[in-house]
Structures are given as C-alpha cells and as structure tokens.
Records
---
Amino acid sequence: MMRSLFLYLSGAGWARAFVTHFFLSRRAARRFIAGETLTEAVDATRALNEKGLMVSLDHLGESVRDRAMALQAVDDYLELLDVIHQYQLDANISVKLTQLGLDIDESFCLDNMRRLLEKAKEINTSVNIDMESSKYTEATLRIFRALRTEFDNVGTVLQAYLYRTEADIQALAAEGATIRLCKGAYKEPADIAFPEKSDVDKNYIKCLQLFLTPENLAKGAYLKIATHDPKMIEAALTHIREHHINADQFEFQMLYGIRPETQLELVRQGYRVRVYVPYGTAWYPYFMRRLAERPANVWFILKNLFRR
Ligand SMILES: Cc1cc2nc3c(=O)[nH]c(=O)nc-3n(C[C@H](O)[C@H](O)[C@H](O)COP(=O)(O)OP(=O)(O)OC[C@H]3O[C@@H](n4cnc5c(N)ncnc54)[C@H](O)[C@@H]3O)c2cc1C
C-alpha cells in the first residue's frame, strides 16, 4: 500500500509543489541526491572515484513536454560531459528519454540522443538510457536499437518485474547489447508485471543467467547488475564464479546513498562497481520512487523533520 501511495505521489503535481517547497524535505532528499548543482555532483563523483567506484551521473528531469526544456536538458548534459572530460572523472551519464522529448516527438528525441552520444564518444564515455514506466518500454527499445546501428557507446535498462523482459533480455544479449538489469521502480498492472516480489526476484536471477552466457559475452554483450539486494548479488556471484566469467564482462551498480558499504566490499573483492549519482533541482519524483522502494525511509525523513 505504501509503495502504491509513494508511486502515486511521484506523479502528483500538487504533492511535488508541497514537498519541494520545504527546506527540510530538500535536506531529507539529500540522502539520495548528490546536490542541486553540477559542482556538488562533481565533488560527489570525485569522492566516489577516489574509493575505486565508477559513476553514472543523472541530471534529474523527466516528463518534459516543452521543446525548449528538452533542448535545455541536452545542453545541460553536454556541459556535464565537458566537465567529466575536464576533470577526468571516471563517469558516464544516464538519461531519461522523456527528459529529452520522447513525449513531444520520437525523432526529436532521437536527434537529441545523437548529440549526446557524439559528444560522449569524443570524450570516450557512454550514455545509458534509463527505463521509465511500461508506457515507454517499446519506444525506448526502438530508439536504443536505432542508436546502436550508429553508436557503440549506448546502453539501456530492462526491468525484471515485466513479463516481457525474459524475451527482451535474450534478444538483446544475442545482439551483443549493453544492458542494466534492475527490478523496476514504477507502478505496473498485474497483466504486464509480476505483482509478487518473490516472482520479480526469481525473474531477476533467471534473466541474469540468460544474459551471462559465453555465447552472448563473445558477442560483446555487457551486463550491469543493478541491485542492492544481497540475494541477487549472491546469485550473480555464484553464476559468475561457476561460469568463470571475467570481472571485466559485467559490473555491479547501486544508487547513491544506498548500501555504500556493500559497494566498497565488492570493489575490495575485485569487482567493478558503478554508483548512480543523481543531481539537480528536479529531484522530487526520483525521491518518491526511493521512498516507495523502502517505506522505512520515511522514518528517516520524520527524524530529520524534528532534528534541529
Ligand atoms: C544503478 C541503478 C539504476 C536503476 N535504474 C532504473 C531504471 O532505469 N528504471 C527502473 O525502473 N528502475 C531503476 N532502478 C531501480 C530498481 O528498479 C529498483 O527499484 C531498486 O534498485 C530497488 O530494488 P533492489 O534491487 O535494490 O531490491 P529490493 O528488494 O527493493 O531491495 C533490497 C534491499 O536493498 C536496500 N534498498 C533497496 N532500495 C532502497 C532504498 N530506496 N532505500 C534504502 N535501501 C534500499 C534495502 O536494504 C533492501 O532490503 C535502478 C536501480 C539501480 C541500483
């Protein structure tokens, strides 16, 4: 119930205006967000890089319905790529297609992605397309596949809670794609997504095993194992050890502020780990999705409200 409530609130304009207005909620959101400015994002990235962690930077924003705003998002990301290069950060970028104009016009969005990928290629980094709600799955995969015919530095995400993911992941792995596998963070109906967490977990492990095969890896397929769940991580490590998969053929990914000790432990064990670092002023829906994943986080906020 709490999950549904927070996912509803993530899209509610009135709640956004109410929550983002308060200094205290901004402070609470800082648990999951590096800051509102590019400088804060750079500082957070440097600190993580110094600990051996790679980074994916997300300049927060989504559901953009205005061309000028989508073009502004492209400019912001181009500036971010310049800064990644200037400071030699070990970082790539993560973007949402609805931030780059997918709701306005698909070909406009595709052109915006091309601009980012060209710049990213110039500075030897990559662009990852986040996966949003199921309304966008088909279009996201269509755009991803179109971009892959022109660029080799693009990846996208599949969500284990969708029934279709088993087929999608097999097809994309056979195409040698770069895929981030996560459980899925949106509210989806039972006719397209597993309602039970135990089934999502089972499907996560199944999809991971289907992806990480010698045949797929030989084609250049690369998996980003995005989860904080110790059971998923253990299942991944078991599969990786049993199949003698090299540490440079996959990476673990976790969100900024969640399980930092596990991130470092995996680095100590010799695995690649990338932290997803969001920043910017449009943090509200991202913050609500993090609360939906773990309603216990609400206590953290309440504690903050009463702390001086
Ligand atoms: C790098 C990365 C990128 C992602 N990109 C996308 C995307 O593009 N599209 C999408 O739909 N989803 C994305 N997600 C979110 C994902 O779908 C899940 O909603 C989220 O990761 C929680 O699932 P879990 O695998 O951590 O397992 P869960 O079973 O939800 O959690 C396992 C354990 O992890 C810890 N944990 C999990 N979430 C939180 C939290 N919010 N606060 C504190 N502790 C927590 C808790 O200890 C919990 O018991 C991404 C996740 C990661 C890590």
---
Amino acid sequence: MKSHRKLSLSCLAVVVAALYGLFPGAAIDVAAQPADGAGEAVPDRIFTNGRVLTVDADFSEAEAIAVAGERVLAVGSAADILALAGPGTITTDLGGRTVVPGLIDNHMHFARAARDWYRHVRLDGVTSRGAALALIAERARALPEGEWVIVLGGWNFAQFGADDAPFTRAELDASVPDRPLYVQEGYRRGFANSAALGAAGIDAGTRFDGRGALVTDDAGNPSGELVGAAMNLVTQHLPDASAGVRDASFQAAVADMHGMGLTTVYDVGGNGVTPEFYAPLRRAHEAGELTMRVFYSLNGQHGIGSSADEIVAALSARTPDLTGLRFAQFGWGETTYPPMRAQPWRISAQELANYEAIAFAAAENGWQMHEHALRDVKVRAMLDVFEAVDAVRSLADLRWTIAHTNGMSQESIDRANALGMVFATHSSSRLATPEAIAGGATTPPFRSIHESGGIWGLGSDATTVASPNPFHNIGWVVSGLSPAGERILSETVPREAALTAHTRRNAWLLFRENDLGSVEAGKLADFVVLDRDYMSVPEDEIKDLRALMTVVGGEVVWSATN
Ligand SMILES: [Zn+2]
C-alpha cells in the first residue's frame, strides 16, 4: 500500500484544513466509552468532537477515535482520546458530526458495475423523468465524442410517480441527439435512441424471433424499446474499451461508492462476467491503489466449468482466502450449480444428488456456500440438502449464506438458524411497484428474520436490479418506502438493527469480524463521517444520507471537498 499511503498523506493536510471549515459545530454531550487498549502507542491521527456510533455489541457511542497505522488504537471520550496525542498526531475536529463504521455490501455485482461506470448514468433515487433525462444529457456532454452513454438498470419507471410511461425514441433523441444512448430497466427491457439503433444496424427491416420483442411503432419502425433477449441486439454492439479506460472507470466507481459510505464489497460474479472483469481490481491492488476492500467469490465465471464434477474438482483443488483484508477470494456462489438457477425453478433427483455432492465438497474444503434464493420452494430443497451434509459434517463454523431471502417462510428461517446460516438480505424489491407487491411479489421478511434471532446482513444486489447506495437499503428497511415514497414493505426493522446489518453482521458473513464492521480498538480504522445524524434524521430521509469523509485503514480515501 506504499504508493497509496504517500498520496493520501499529502491529501490529508488539505482535507484536515477543509474539515475545520466544514464542521464548525459545537461539541455534543454523549456518554463516552473508556479508551481500552491504548497501551504505549501514539496515535497518528485523532478524530474528535463527533458522535461515534461504534456499532459494537452494545451499540455504544463515543466522541473520539484514535488511529495508529491502519487500525483503531482507542475509542472514547474526547478528553481521554486527546490525552493520547503526541507531537506528530494530526487532529481532526468532527464538529459534532455522526460517524458510523464503513458500510459493507454483502452481495454486489461490483466488477461488472465498475467496468462500465465511466459511461454509465445512475438513476438511483431520481424521482423525476425530466431530471433523469437531464442527468443522461449531462453525462453525454462530458464523454468523448462518439462514446456511448448507457444506463444499466438499478431504477424503474415507478420512481417517476405518475410520469411512468416508457421512454420514447423521440424523447431519448432529444436528450442525446449526437451519439448512441441505451437505457436499460432492470433485466426486463431496454430503450435505444436513433444513434444506438443505427450503430446496431436495427431498422424497419430487422426481425427478431427470440424470447422477447423488438417493439415497432404504427408505421413499422423500431420504437427504440427492446424487450427481453432483444436487448442483445443493441448491447452486443457496445464498444470495448482500453485497459486504461477500464482502470479509470474502476477508480471512478470506487470513488462514487466511497461517497455513499461504502468501504467493503463482496462481489458475487454475475451473468456475463469473465475473469477479465477483475483485471482492473488486480492492477489497482498490485499498485497499492485499491481503497475499497473487495472480497469476491469463486464461481463458474472464473473458468472452472459448470458440471458437478468440475465444480467438485475446483472446490477440492482450491483454498478459500479467509485472512486477506484488501482483495481476497473466498466463498462459493452465488451461482453454485446451474440447475439451481433454472427459471422457473425445477430440479431433477439426479441434479439434486449432484448439488449434494457439491455441498459436501464445499463443506469438506472449508468453502462458504452463498446461494441465490428468491422463493421458498427452492429454499426448502436447499435446506434438505444442507441438513443432509450437516448430519455428516457440521456446518456450524462455515456460515453458509442464503442470498436475497425473498419469500422465505418462518419454517425455513428456523431451519436455516438451526444450521447456523447467515441471511444476506437485499433491497432489489424496493423497486417493486405497490401493485406488484399486492399481486404477490415477495420481499425479504426482514423483521421475521431479525426477531428469530437470525444472523442477517443487509446488502444491495446492485447494480442492475438495485442501487449500490447502502443508505438506500437502510432507509428502505427502516421506513418501508419505495423510491417514490410509497409504503411497500411491512417487515421494517429499527434503525440500529439496519445499521448493524450493513456493518458488523456483514463482517461476520465475510469471516472478518475481528477486523471489520465496527469502530473498536484493534479493528481496522474504516469509518464514515456523515452529513447528518443517522439516529435522529427522519426515517424517510435516511436514504439521503451522504458521506462527508470516508476513511479506510486509517487513510482518508474520499472527502466531500475533493
Ligand atoms: Zn442473485
């Protein structure tokens, strides 16, 4: 991390100077925790006069944090922490701002998102159609001539309220007249402007016979809307980019996510992902410039084959990395075995037997399974298999994880708890419409899981089906509100539980509970200074919280003054 440390230290003076101007608040009176473990060491940095939500086991609060090297030296009252300062200690006055542990996302398609971030517009939380089109136009003007502008999911028309008609080709042409524009809504459908249709060679004579539709207007011309597999007619023409552009794109994604408060992500592969997608991460890590902690799973996207025999061989030949703290591969999923991803879900007896062989191999070789499951019928079949494995080799220490958890029954929750499993819950159903929810679309049973005593973490499943912003996830499970402000989630949880789920619980899921997830002496100094107080901001404004400063391993990696 040498080159990066140098860079950050030179930036730090600027940041500290700016912070004094930025945080002119009065000290707040909170109960301080005793500063444990200070020992003889002298802190490199002290952050004082804040409201530090440590998210330790007691959800205790403190006023100040002392950092030595990459780790927290002590947390406690301002007086106790300031007493530790030496002549070289840099002190930052937080002006009464709230500090939370760095947010951890337990399930993101991160490498895929970062790859196209540079030409990608995020519409997360944008509640007006005009504002969305303006953001797209603005990005187009900032990109080199001819470069595509794309929106790859994470939003839906329902967030525009009553103005929820599909985009027209004329509307997209008016927003971006001079270059290809492609706007995708989830995995469902996409919308192309005339330049994108032209670049893809699509005209009135184009026919599409696959699963989906190339929508035409009354005159038989393409309307710009592409449903289902017809999206490929356009997306296959997205030009590739140089390694330098991909690296810059990756760093832009990291910076934007630090601004949301994220310091750690768990990447779980995804459709279309190849080993090449991880090259920018690897290059950043090798250059000491990877400021996001990235854990990523082993899966079929890493070139190991997808038959049961090939998977068992791969799990037996490799060892999960349970000690790396910056860029480490561990865990098996979220696609653990292709037949388990069939839609609609059905599986033969032979395939279930194969799945059991894979689960045994994972258990015997110390791999954490991270299984995608949206419906209880699949969860029950998965639990049958896991209980059979557990009868032979206990799963208690492996923290096997069920991802998404939509539609899980109380009986399945109880069975998963008995196996010591972890629930990786996600926010993708935040984009469901009230009608879809009323029609039976499932959401994760957050409160049932929480009140069952289950170990659950909160994540996004971003970026195609959800926003990567952790405060969008937290705001949703606390308030129950969709981006358009409609109440669609009944199983809400207290804000303390939601923050714990997005920090300390996810550290457990990642096997890094001794290093990450809370602001405590001895742990890595990953924390976020927020623009407003997490504990007192109204529930419907939690989604709008932003980082003013993000610290990873004691280094200021992002600041609102950048
Ligand atoms: Zn999934």
---
Amino acid sequence: MASSDVSTSAMLSPDTLAPDTLAAAMLSPEQIAAYQTDGFLLIDNAIPKPLLEELQLVTRQYIADSAHVSQDNDLYDLDDGHCADNPRPNRIKTPYTQHVVFQTLLQSPLVITLLKQLLGPNVRLHNSKLNTKAGGGGTAVQWHQDWGFYPHTNDDLLALGFMLSDIGPDDGPLQVVPGSHRGPVLSHHNEGVFCGAIDPEDPEAKLSDAVSLTGAAGAMSIHHVRTLHGSAPNISSSPRLLLLYECGAADAWPINGNQSIFAGMNQAELWARMQQNMVCGEQAATPRLASVPVRMPLPPPADTSSLFAVQKSGAAKSAFA
Ligand SMILES: O=C(O)CCC(=O)C(=O)O
C-alpha cells in the first residue's frame, strides 16, 4: 500500500500532537525507578485518539491487503493457515519504512520525550515491527531476550510496544519476567545452534514470575533489551495488534555483524543508515563500550528471515500449548 492511499496522516504532524501527548510522556521518578528495577513499564492512554484511529485504519488495510500474498516477503510474515479468504499475517515488517503514520508516532513529542528520559539525548531506531497475531490461535512468540538477537556495545536499548487493539489475557499479550534484564543473558541455543528462544526449563528463567502486559488500545509498554519476554497464541477471535519500535542510545553499536539489520551494507551505506535512523540527537563515531554479557546469535539456524523463522527453523522449545 502506498502511503498516499491513507487518509489523514498529513493532518497529524508531530507538532499538532504535542498538547495531547506531553503529559503522558513525562515519566515520574517512580516510573523511571520502576523501569530500572523491573525492566518494563506499562502506560495507559499513550496514543492520542485521532492518531490511534489512523494507525488502526492503516493496519487493518495492511492485514486485508495480505490476502494477495501467499508467502513471506519483505512486507509480511504469514501465519499457518493464511490464505486469500482468511488473511492471517503474523507481522507487518518495518512499518516505519512502509507508511508515514508510523513515522508520525515515533517522531511525536510523546515518543521523543520518553526516549530521551530513558536513553539520553541521542537515540537511534534499531528496527520496527507490527505484530498482528491473528485471532483463533495466532502464533506464540517463544521466550527470549532481544539482546540474544542483537547484542550491542552497551545495553541502553529498549522496545516501545504500542497496543493498537485492546489486549486482554486471551489475546496473547506480551509477558515479561520482572528484573530479568539485570540477570544473565540466557542461552538461546538448541543443540549448538541459535534458535532465538531460551529453554523454558532453564532454572535461571524464572518464568513463573512473569506478568502479562494487558491494556486498552492506545496503551503502551516499554521493555529493556535484556528483559525476558514472550507471548502465547491468540485464542480470542480478533487480531492482537502490537506495534514495536526497538530503539537504543546512539552510542550503542551493533556487534553481530552480518546478522544485524545492517547486514550486507558497505561502510558508507552503514553510516547513512545510522544517520537516517536517528530519532533525536546525533550519531557519533564513538561507540560506548560497557561491561555487558554477550552470547552471539551464532551459528545461525537455517532460516534467519524473521524471529518466527529463527524460532521455527532453529527448533526452539515451546513454552506455550
Ligand atoms: O508480539 C509479541 O508478542 C512479542 C514480540 C517480540 O518479542 C518480538 O517481536 O521480538
């Protein structure tokens, strides 16, 4: 879908959103402390209604348009059972580069204010994704730490998760293990191959402590890059829509070479992409090296085209029925 296909984005410039969103964006000292302790936050009513409605409209259109696609491609990851009569995308890939409305949200004062409070003045977008877990059993995401996929020179990275649908217990909400971002980086390997998921039996995983991040459409979650998380199948009748932006301090540089989102780029292209992905502030050529535990996502499984492909082709152990 071309960005011109959809309605009102031009009216929703980041500036016009300021009055509605800044109040939600200023985190209290208690919220910042909770994020540091627990590795996640939940904020209700984060997206102003006109923008939420447009995000929902655009998302519904992408889901409907997936009916014309029969296999995974640069735009869609498809669920088992997907067909023209019953479109079931798991994910719309890199929504930030697909439609202006997803740029409007990330560049809004809400998001920039939040990001600066948690990551400092210079913030770069790592990746974006819109997980559209279909109703009637849409795919589980097995337990993992995002850090297992994309280690950096320091761990000042997080994922913003915007709920574009109401998300209750039956919808396969994101679940997180409080405090796990301060613990070890768990093995995401099965029989020596990266599988993008931990072993649910790993005694260090403490999955019984997990909490579900539910909320009404317009709410948002934030989770640290090392926070252990996953989600069960969606057993409700409608899609669960979670829009994720993974962002980091600009001095956190990816260290997984060809497995990173900069795969295959030459030095000039890499630098240009880093500049393009800046959300606020400046990209410097001076990575900050922190003492952080790292396990490389290597050797790779047969299919590394998406998280779903990694977990499937790497034969990740399922924690969900
Ligand atoms: O959509 C979800 O429930 C989890 C998504 C996630 O962890 C991911 O895409 O990395």
